[in-house]
Design brief:
Helices cover about 40% and strands about 15% of the residues. It has about 260 residues and is α/β, with parallel strands linked by helices. It contains eight helices and twelve strands. A four-stranded mixed β-sheet has the order 3-8-5-11, with no helix packed on it. Strands 4-12-6-7 form a four-stranded mixed β-sheet.
Length: about 260
């Protein structure tokens, strides 16, 4: 899936050049994304954005094979993961994936060109048998579960996320991107019964800061690790502030779940 991803789509496509087929679904690029993609595959499908889950379901339905690997346009398959997948594909479901529906893998995230160790392992379910996987709705991400009675396998080779991004500081903080996602996250939390009160607003942001600085080892990366922990503080604070605002507005209207909660 891609839109205006000229900086990263080339490495993404090149990292899966060994696949039996490569399908790219573009949702309206105005930069050189499609031109770059056509250097790697002729299977470019233009489809207006349907949402995170629906767009990937649409793409999976276009595939010719039962086993599908999904990548975002700013991700790459590492050499270690590619080596495992190429060896496994010849066995078609035997070995480690025998009897499983979905497999996840760790993802290495990069910000301002540096690997964010504190965000690991960040496991992503991206390899699946499309007839034996269940898509779960999520506000910002596609989520795959095994079918009832199925099994989730765990692979070791990582995906590489934003390793070639040219965003610079924008990789660390983008107010525009955060604005576009904030209320989606708040509505998703609200729908799942989460509530935001005084204690959440007071304690959750600093606890997130300490988690990524101390528990997740951000301190090992010096100032960079401090910035990552600070980003967690700000993200959590804004997320729960948006949730509180959403619930306050509903109370003002006097309707819906949580209307009588503080």
């Amino acid at each position: 899936m891609c839109q205006d991803a000229a900086a990263t789509i080339g490495p993404a496509c090149a990292s899966v050049a060994w696949a039996d087929e490569l399908i790219v679904v573009d949702s309206g690029s105005t930069d050189e994304t499609v031109e770059i993609v056509r250097r790697h595959t002729d299977r470019v499908i233009h489809e207006p954005w349907r949402g995170y889950t629906e767009q990937k379901q649409f793409a999976a339905d276009l595939c010719s094979h039962d086993w599908v690997l999904i990548l975002d346009s700013d991700e790459e398959v590492s050499e270690a993961l590619a080596g495992w997948l190429k060896a496994w594909s010849a066995e078609e479901g035997e070995g480690e994936l025998a009897g499983c529906d979905v497999a996840d893998m760790p993802r290495e995230n990069y910000v301002m060109g540096r690997h964010v160790r504190a965000w690991g392992p960040d496991r992503q379910a991206r390899l699946f048998h499309r007839g034996r996987a269940v898509w779960r709705e999520d506000a910002l991400h596609d989520t795959l579960d095994p079918s009832p009675g199925g099994r989730l396998a765990h692979l070791d080779g990582p995906l590489l996320h934003k390793r070639h991004s040219d965003g610079g500081f924008d990789d660390y903080f983008s107010g525009r991107r955060m604005d576009s996602r904030l209320m989606l996250v708040a509505r998703d939390l609200d729908a799942r019964g989460k509530r935001a009160g005084l204690l959440d607003l007071v304690f959750r942001p600093p606890m997130a800061f300490l988690k990524f600085l101390l528990i997740k080892g951000g301190w090992r990366d010096g100032v960079f690790g401090l910035l990552i922990a600070q980003k967690a503080w700000v993200s959590v604070q804004l997320k729960y502030a948006a949730l509180w605002s959403l619930q306050r507005e509903r109370r003002r209207r006097g309707a819906g779940p949580g209307a009588d909660r503080g």
